[in-house]
Input
Amino acid sequence: MSFLVLQAYLKLIHFEFYLARGNFSALYNKVRNYPVANRVPAQDAVERICAAMDMAGIWYWKEALCLQRSAALTCLLKRYGVTAQMVIGAQQMPFKAHAWVEVDGRVVNDKSYTPGRYAVLDRC
Output
């Protein structure tokens, strides 16, 4: 588990650089084009990887934005053979944008009702 936490932490740092430069298109392209590993994921892979990302977020030196966490988690899941999608959504009143991760249509890093609160703008 500690190796997974380290990988998650490094992914948060990786995507911090994209956000610090305001390079959202590069972040988006990185997530969209990140290959899914050609391996069968362990049965508990999603739960273990999500728990590792949560732990990395606790130790991260600042609060990670939902976009940063979701991009990092999506790529980490793909690295372990899980077909994951980062979903970006928005609500109108009050305007608010949000990002989360889905695996097989199930939200894995947020509340299950999240997709009902936001209009989906894109999936990658």
Remarks:
- The longest helix spans residues 2-20.
